Amino acid sequence: MTVELMSPIPMCRVFAMLFVGIVVGSGMGLIGTATRAFGEDNKPTDDPSRKFFEQYCHTCHAALKPKGDFRVESLSQDFADKANREKWLKVVEQLKTGTMPPKGKPRPSANEAKALIDWIEGRVAATEIVRNAAQGRAVMRRLNQAEYQNTVRDLLGVELELKDLLPDDTVVGGFDTSTETLHMSSYQLNGYLAAANRVLDAAVAGGPRPTHVNRRFDMKAATRRQGVSRELDEGVAIFASDLASNIQTVLWSFLTRDRGQYRFRISAYAYQSEKPVMFHVNGGNSNLGDPPYLIGHFEVPPGEPTVIEFVEQLEVGKNIRILVDTEVRANTLQRSDVENYKGPGVVFQWVEIEGPLLDSWPPPSYRLLFGNMPQTPAPDNSNRREVVSQQPVADAEAILRKFTRRAFRRTVTNEDVKPFLDRVQTKLNEGYSFERALRVGLKSVLVSPDFLFLRENIRRADNSGLPDNTKLPAALDEFSLASRLSYFLWSSMPDEELIRLAEREKLSQPQTLREQVERMLRDPKAKAFTENFAGQWLGLRNIDATLPDRQLYPEYDDILRSAMLKEVYLFFAEVLRDDMSLTNFVSSDFSIINSRLATHYGIPGIEGLEFRKISLPTSSHRGGVMTMAAIMKVTANGTTTSPIVRGAWVLDRILGTPPPRPPANVEAVEPDIRGATTIRNQLAKHRQVESCAVCHVSIDPPGFALENFDVIGGWREHYRSIGSGEPVTVNGKRMRYKNGPAVDAGDVLPDGRQFQTVEEYKNLLLSDKDQLARALAEKLLTYATGTPPTIADRPHIESILESVRGKNYGFRSLVQEVVQSEVFQNK
Amino acid sequence: MRISRRQILRAAGVSLALPWLDAFAPTTARGADAADPPRRLICICAPLGLYPGNFFPTATGKSYELSPYLELLNEYRDDFTVISGLAGISGGHQAIDGFLTGIPGAGQPAIRNGISVDQFAAEQISAKTRFPSLALSGEGLGLSWTRTGARVPAHNSPSRLFAEMFLEGQENEVRAQLQNLEEGRSILDDVRDQARSLRSKLGTDDREKLEEYLSSVRELEQRLVTDEKWVKTPKPKVNVEPPQDISNRSDLIGRTRLLFDLAHLAVQTDSTRLITIMLAGATSAPPIPGVNQGHHDLSHHGKDPGKLAQLQLIEVECMKVLGELVAKLKQSQEQGETLLDRTTVYLGSNLGDASSHSNKNLPVLVAGGGFRHGNHLAFDPQNPPPLCNLYVSMLQRLGIETDKFNTGSSTLNGLEFKPS
User: Fold this and answer.
1) Helix extents (H) in A578-676
2) Which of A107, A351, A401, A668 could pair with A8 in a Cys bridge, judged by C-beta atoms 3.0 to 4.6 Å apart?
């Protein structure tokens, strides 16, 4: 499905909001200096609710038929009751958004409302602190799809695609580590059974050694679509491709029979061009209806053929397709005379494919499971081989003990191993061979709750079973800490070193933890942190939610798409690696780009598709993540940009002060693309309505600051229009869009500070570094613990800030301090 | 007339089966008798809405004048009811998660989705068919949700689903399948015991998560038992060519047609009685003459006449394919009744007006199923009954005795059963 994933923020029309100060001061997330302990000054005797309710709520929310099915009497003083607590928080939400009491009824003053909000939040916090001390704040959750896949990779030593077997996780706005959204179902469980089969097949590797393929494919023999290529003596010149219309060169004569790494060599050169020409290679199944995936972008210069070489992991039944990235549209070319076409293309001569590249057979995964145990031909006369044992029960026990310890990410007891061993024993008695019986046991481990769930335990003082409150309230035990750390930074299970440290009860020592974080971030597995944390924090997974309108944005293509994503990931990784200040996410003097992005950004002098760190010229208007093309793309809808959507994005992702959810009864503002009016004019109208303005005075300004960036993150001084406007010519070509009204990026913040440009806005953001750090710390903790910080966690977040303030807000330091924090180390 | 690539594909696929329908060996529904005929439900969602100006008739009641889109189903006027004014879900595009659950705000943070109407029905009538239910999707995610709030994975490949429904596996494949089912059951036995002993070690919130796991184990156990029965039962034979998946990702009408054809075959062979279909909402321009912008893009028409004209071209094609499905069901007989009379076909959307992401006044069309039709049932958009009331009606029509479903607390006023 390709509907938009962003939440459009409608304009409020209906509801008045009286207390601006509250919305800005405490209504948005966790702003404010909340270092004091909660609960002290909020004794029930101060309860302002009774009076408040009588005065403002009773008329409608009492008696037998209360409005909205809500009676204030249904709120009890029992804050330990979760449902009751949530009801109180609903009241807070209503008060903060100003939805209730409704317009036209007697309404409280800002001070009255604030007093009630403070009282409710204080009671909730006090209760949460007690609850968290007893059973922790984070609720048990299952592994998500990425974590499952990485975990079996590290557990069994097999690199496998399992996406087709495991249902997609439902992610709602935040991270896929969220306890709230990771549900279990019979479909999910059935998927785990099927995945376990595939994983074990690959790990046990009972088949014969895969045949080593080493072939050269002549491009003249490949199937091509009509009208986009021309055959030459030296090869085939391809001028245009179009994935959506299936205009691509599929190497049909190659289809992998075995999973593994394959080496590709492609001989090609640019044709009818003085500059290098780009192309890309996709992988996919023999069924063209299945979505393909990108293997890589390449470019070749004219002249002597260049040989492009790369190695790619492929599943069984995969082939590759080649698509050239030229400017001419495939179906335009198909309607003209391709034999005499003079535009640029790529001449392909041949593709060499070698693989699967294996060091040994059976592969290392076999030894990981079975050590040096021998294989013999399987009893069923197939061409499989099976591992055999002289002492099946003893061997099964040893294998299962070793396996469960790693799969459960903790030491295991006899009781842990027994059910699996019993099952193997039963199967052996039924006449199963050793390997088949053992596989049932292993499969059982892979669907057991101890494997599938991140079950975090509270540290026990001794064998009494009572929590060790001397250290921290609800502190994680060593193994749970190891898992939390490794799923945080690797999205995978702890390795042997972490498990050993946990066994020796050394991991929780602050210095050890710091060393481990450093070690883990240096490990290639830390790539998962960049992909999964940054990818979701910044919403990059939505990059394909919409496709830019071709008429308005003809320059958008697949290379630009990949390049814009890569820039963000590389930038994030760089800031992390060098412990640069997290303010770089708002504003930086460098970025990491290639020639395609440089063209897009109007930065001269960058040649070649490889990415490199560059100093940004001041004229580029770039620096920081907000103005990167990928971010501008995921906050637009393909045709237009909305300051409301972008403003809400900045408030949530960068400032950590997400605006309240829009009232249910209002529709979104629809930008006009006919060139008749600008979004500013449209929004101006609704900012004059007091009831709307009260929220939008905060939401719109950051959005306007980004108005100079179009749907694909290009710089614009005028909106592109498909209606009225001046004609536009690019590189001598007349565009189908016109120059619409001029962009105005200036606005004023709720506190009166003004800005004219995005640079000025960024400077205003940088004036409160604490808030930027607080926002990011909250995101990191949400991702790491699967649970967003609540009121009760505020003091701990403030301690994190204290620690990074002296370190120039270094991002790596922030990650370190997050790990050192109580919120991270408590369940 | 120029023959399009899609038509050629169709000719090769199942669509041409229409004239041969009589040649089907009629697969009578198992355990069916005339007194208790099998009843089915097909729920279809157009995720980008249907332009209200072209969908809704202006007049109400029996003698309403067909709207431009309904005009395309003119022939079946007495076989469907068009309903306006319904609401109950919220969240713009995200409300898609609540389309069949009716949970307001589903798809947004902190709101847990409920069970979808098809899965609710499957809990009671699933064992009678090879597939308890089928979730189909034109492009990705499906519409169905479990009681635990998890999305049911959807079938995206018509060719693979066709093989699962109608092509017998090799003998050794079947043997391996049976062995897997048997092993699966013993494994579930073991892990259930482990989960139970784990329960005592957990805090209350953790325990809730474990309960989800345990109920999933229970459901899967039951399913593996019925699966085993079905693996041993020969698959129904159909006299059609297996469909080929369409590689052109923007060909949303072609993709929709393949899914509808499969839905018809599944109902006809009584392979399942509950089907949900998410239609494709491609972002690139579909191969329809006169259309050069993506469907999603066009749905944000902003009242631009050029965009509206193109949007209409797409939606007209969509309505026509729906008409084909209705026609096929009407032409297929079962025990002297048409399949249409036993199959409720529900076309709707999570969006009332895609251009502004409104979830009010949802477009709803209910065909067949044995309801009294030929009516424009108009509710007051200012004070609408919940969408779930419609679902209560559909559940009762399936023979399920319930007067509640999520936010629905009665049947939908005015949607009556046809006297039998």
Assistant:
1) 595-601, 629-634, 643-649
2) A668
Which among A246, A453, A455 has CB closest to B247? A246
Peptide bond into B158 cis (omega under 30): no
Helical spans, DSSP H, in A409-433: 414-429
Q: Report the pLDDT value the prediction gives residue A667, as an integer from 0 to 100.
A: 61
Contact A682, A741 (CB under 8 A): no
CB contact under 8 A, A191 and B153: yes
Number of other residues whose CB lies within 10 A of the CB of residue A747:
22
Provide the 3-class DSSP secondary structure of residue A169. Answer: coil
For A:729-758, CB contacts with B below 8 A are: none
Phi-psi region of A170 (alpha: psi -120 to 50; beta: other; left: phi over 0): beta
Q: How many CB atoms lie within 10 A of CB A761?
A: 26
Predicted pLDDT at A12: 36
Beta-bridge mates of residue B408: B405
Low-confidence ranges of chain B (pLDDT < 70): 1-35, 282
Contact B93, B361 (CB under 8 A): no
Low-confidence ranges of chain A (pLDDT < 50): 1-43
* Cα–Cα separations (whole angstroms), residue A80 to A36, A77, A122: 21, 9, 13
For residue A671, the model assigns a pLDDT of 61
Query: If you ran DSSP here, which 8-state letter would residue B354 be given?
Result: G
Q: Is the separation of the CB atoms in B39 and B335 below 8 Å? A: no
- Name the residue among A134, A245, A551 with its Cβ closest to that of B248: A245
Measure CB to CB from residue B157 to each of A290, A544, A672 and give the nearest one.
A290
Cis omega (within 30 of 0) on the bond before A362? Answer: yes
Nearest to A825 by CA among A526, A499, A485, A511: A485
Compute and round to an integer the Cα radius of gyration of chain A: 30
Residues of chain B contacting residue A449, judged by C-beta atoms under 8 Å apart: 191, 194-195, 198, 210, 213
Which of B45, B89, B93 is the best substitution to test chain A (most A C-beta atoms within 10 A)?
Answer: B93
pLDDT at A612: 97
Whole-model pTM?
A: 0.87
Q: Three-class SS of residue A571?
A: helix
Closest residue to B356, CB basis, from A444, A448, A667? A667
What pLDDT, on the 0 to 100 scale, is given for residue A666? 63
Nearest to A586 by CA among A539, A489, A530, A653: A653
Q: Are B45 and B279 in contact (CB under 8 A)?
A: yes
In contact, A764 and A749? CB cutoff 8 Å: yes
> What pLDDT is attached to residue A317?
92
Q: What does the pLDDT read at residue B51?
A: 95
- A–B CB contacts, 8 A cutoff, strictly below: 225
* Helix ranges (DSSP H) in A308-363: 330-334
| B406 and B101 Cβ atoms separated by less than 8 Å | yes
Closest residue by Cα to residue A770 from A578, A537, A583: A583
Distance from C-alpha of A481 to C-alpha of A497, rounded to nearest angstrom: 13
- Which pLDDT belongs to residue B31? 46
Strand, coil or helix: what is A49? Answer: helix
Strands of A666-717 (E only): list them. Answer: none
Structure confidence by residue, pLDDT tens digits, A355-375: 999 989 999 999 999 999 999
pLDDT at residue A750, as a whole number: 87
**Res B5: pLDDT:** 39
Residue A264 φ/ψ region, left for φ over 0, alpha for ψ in the -120 to 50 degree band, beta for the rest: beta
Q: Rounded distance, CA B410 to CA A327, Å?
A: 58
Residue A798's nearest CA partner among A38, A5, A245 is A38
Note whether ipTM > 0.85 here.
yes
Chain A residues within 8 A of B183 when measuring between CB atoms: 440, 443
Q: What are phi and psi of B137, to 5 degrees?
A: -150, 140
